[in-house]
Amino acid sequence: MRKLLFLAFCVAVNIQYTQAQDRITGEPFATRSEVLGQNGMVATSHPLATQIGLDILKKGGNAIDAAIAANAALGLMEPTGCGIGGDLFAIVWDGKTQKIYGLNASGRSPQKLTLEYFEKNNMTKIPSHGPIPVSVPGAVDGWFELHKKFGSKPMSEILAPAIDYAEKGFPLTELIAWYLQRSIPFYKSKNFPNITETYIAQNRGKLPNEGEIYKNPYLANTYRKIAKGGRDAFYKGDIAKTIGKFIKEQGGFLSAKDLSNHKSEWVEPVSVNYRGYDVWELPPNGQGIAALQMLQILKGYDFSNIEFGSAEHLHLFTEAKKLAFEDRAKYYADMDFFKVPVTELLSDSYASKRRAQIGKRAGKYNAGKISAGETIYMTVADKNGTMISLIQSNYRGMGSGMVPPELGFMLQDRGELFSLKRGQANTYEPNKRPFHTIIPAFITKNGKPFVSFGVMGGDFQPMGHTQIVMNLVDFGMNLQEAGDAPRFDHTGGASPMGETTTNTGTIRTESGIPYTTIRGLIDRGHRIGTVRGVYGGYQGIMWDDKNKVYHGASESRKDGQAAGY
Hints:
- The chain is an alpha+beta fold.
- Helix content is 36%, strand content 16%.
- It has 20 helices and 19 strands.
- The strands form 4 sheets. It has a 7-stranded antiparallel β-sheet with strand order 1-18-17-13-12-9-8.
């Protein structure tokens, strides 16, 4: 009855929005039906990458083989969001052992770059581009760690489709063409080396538009070296030497030795129970536990009596976000350098104390007191019940602007996310992993896999994860509707980079949120704004244990696709 009332409400207040859909089933904002399959499912932000993953599954590969193959393809096909110059995180449900595993494949800061360097140069913030924010790229080591533990097919076969597309070319999709046409001119304007040679010269001297063929033979050659020589070909061979030499020439600090010393880390995922569903995230240096903190606070409210998209819904969500993000700013960091009080932050008692601070109007909060020291997301599931939730990124879209010669990829600028204020959890130190925004997620129910999902998009990600969980659990949406539903976020407040809270921030909404909600939020003292394209890129796979069927969903705001068989 509640869903029928909401449907009538949307039709009444937002006729122009719903007329664009005209679907005869499901929520009015749904863009498509769920994809269904019994043997396997792949959901990525690019249809060709999805098909590559599906082909691997059909040829006998498992979910991890398919995920690596699709991620390699995305590094070629969506260079505006990911690539082997960046980091990787993954959560794996292993169908064989019926256990959940977590991988932190993020890189560390250069050993020879110190906090004193920034202080000597009167720098209060790490630059967003150039050689200084470049940290060790962890993605390739992440591939090989996943493959060593769970993979079945040889890496030469796994990387072959991406190599073939890089050499022969593929047509650019609408969104990626749009981003490339804006990103490449920006990097060229900064006079960064090798931009033209890598992204333009290889394509007949012109940056392709939508539907035009894009090639990257340099990346094909790099992938070929990795397929043949393994992870050491990247971290200890000519590739590492080329990266180290190039960054030194540009005035940076990342060295071949930094790459040689790199290693990923298998970690224990952490969870909270939200109304009978166990929601899993990875512990810091990522921000995944912010979503868990939000859910811990929000489960104290009865959303069966609160409509989706209402002022009360957005108000409670926003206040929970503010509280969690204040803790994020104070406590989240590389746990090799700072004892993050994860257990305390996720406890019911702590959530109750934080929840008690929420009132009827927009609030301004501080971190709690505890006794303690553009990205891609994709997911794959196979016929054996293994599911992988994987996220991979360069940060700030394409990354730092640093493109080593003839390697075909840009290095990340994750080092920007350190604080330069002494004494903070996330203060810069050599060989330290920066605070990280990219986070994979997973849901289990009664000890069985339920949903592998993620939502990319910087600071939005914990908010996106929380919205997906609430859409599924509280508002009864199916997997595709949960991603298509209008989104909202909150900006402002403290950050792990040293910023402090000065006001109550701003709620930003997509067009599907009705004006009556906006008006209700204003009445509660919230500031309202709009922004284009910050609401992430969702992919999801759900396992129906009763019927033994996978449900797949893909982000309607992107170019992607879910496909199963």
